[in-house]
Structure formats: structure tokens, C-alpha cells
Design a protein that fits this description.
The chain is an all-beta fold and 155 residues long. It has strands spanning 8-18, 27-30, 45-48, 57-61, 64-66, 83-85, 89-100, 112-115, 121-122, 131-135, 145-150.
Length: 155
């Protein structure tokens, strides 16, 4: 589990498609841009951050994106886990806070939160990564930390 139920979702966005399997709690980046409102524009795509320079954070993923064949017997989306299919719409947190274990490094409450490779959040600004928010706690014994997400933000 990458997110705990203890969270505040102030602003979310459901206008992007996710073409990779991903676990909730990671930060996704823009890999394509739609036009206008982009609600059903298949060019409005987000993906995991792979280390490429210049990609902009889109938001923290709030549902699991899975890659399964639903035409085979026994394969269903688990609505209780808020799963969505790869290639479908995903829910992104733009402003609010979550408790997640998708954290690398050793954060301290008050540290700035930056985007790291594979969508993780880190207190380290090595290589000028995009700012995504701030840490509101240190990691607990299970590796979870409280992180404020604030996009767009001034870096």
C-alpha cells in the first residue's frame, strides 16, 4: 500500500490518461498535452518520471493503474481498491496532503519535497528536480511520511 487513508484532497484532476501501470502515491509527469479543456483528448497523457530533463509534474496518483486483460475469465477491476486500467483516466492530486511510503532519502518536517526518478518524493535537490511540495513529517518505522502536494508551484 502506497497511500494511507489519512489525507486531505483539496484539488484533484481527472483529465489525463495514464499509459503505464503505476501504484498510487507516485508523482506522474506530463508526457503529452491536450488542447482546450482536454477532458477526452487522448494527447493529454501522464507517465512515470524516468529521469528525463524538463518533464513537469502533473500530480500525485490517487488510484492504482493496472495492466490486466479484462476479457479473460476472472479478471475484474477491484473498485474497493480504486483501480483503473492502463490507458484510462487517472485521478491526480494537485493540492492537499497525503501519507505515503513513496519517499526516498531522509526527510525532516519542513523540508521541501522534490520529484525523484520513478515518481518518488525526495528532500534532495540534487540535479535541480521539480519542486512538488513540502514534507510535514519525517518517515515513520514503516517508511511512511506526511507530504504536502502543491502544484503548480514556484520552484
Amino acid at each position: 500500500m502506497a497511500l494511507k487513508g489519512d489525507r486531505h484532497e483539496f484539488q484533484t484532476d481527472i483529465s489525463f490518461f495514464c499509459n503505464v501501470a503505476a501504484e498510487r502515491g507516485v508523482i506522474l509527469v506530463h508526457s503529452g498535452g491536450g488542447s482546450g479543456a482536454s477532458m477526452d483528448d487522448t494527447n493529454a497523457v501522464v507517465t512515470l518520471h524516468t529521469g528525463a530533463i524538463g518533464l513537469k509534474p502533473a500530480g500525485l496518483l490517487l488510484n492504482d493503474v493496472i495492466d490486466v486483460n479484462l476479457t479473460q475469465f476472472g479478471h475484474l477491476l477491484n473498485w474497493f481498491k480504486d483501480e483503473t486500467l492502463k490507458g484510462g483516466k487517472c485521478t491526480l492530486l494537485r493540492k492537499g496532503w497525503v501519507v505515503t511510503n513513496k519517499v526516498t532519502g531522509t526527510p525532516v518536517a519542513g523540508d521541501k519535497a522534490y520529484l525523484a526518478v520513478n515518481g518518488l518524493v525526495t528532500p534532495s535537490a540534487t540535479g535541480s528536480p521539480p519542486l512538488v511540495g513540502a514534507f510535514l513529517s519525517a518517515k515513520d518505522q514503516n517508511g511512511y511520511a506526511k507530504v504536502e502536494i502543491n502544484l503548480p508551484n514556484a520552484s
